[in-house]
Amino acid sequence: MQLMKCKAHDVAQLSKLSIDTYVETYCILSTIETVQAHTAKAFTEEALLKELAHPGSTFYFALLDGEVAGYIKLNTGGAQTDDVGEDALEVERIYIQNQFQGRGLGRQLIEEAIHMARQKGKKRIWLGVWEKNEQAVAFYKKMGFTRQGEHIFMFADEACTDYIMVKEL
After folding, report:
1. In the chain, what percentage of residues exceed pLDDT 90?
2. What is the pTM assigned to this prediction?
């Protein structure tokens, strides 16, 4: 796997990848209408350009054999979705296309996030994971994350619970 930093000129590809992977993952956990309502707001090119422009946010495409298999979004400082502190790095998104699942990309992306956090002098990494996404919760536990709280996120018009999971470095 290789990482390629996303830039503004990648926004169309990033938007399509975000929508495709979100639909693949969450249509089995919710209704297609709710998923489509969420993606229609969250993953527009305009919304993603704002995220790309934030100095505390960084996106990386995950390339496998030269093909974009997914991406990771990392946040520090004020870009974090919760105020966890300056000593933390947030993994806001790991999105991998279904055809690339099961090849260790999620593990590799978490390892890269840990490496980047250490380079930045961070003491921990954290993420929010939807309580209904049992497969992801189990994966993060396997990777050494522990549940240390929860927060509410809006999924279209539905209030949902994310588990806050933290890994000390």
Report:
1. 80
2. 0.94
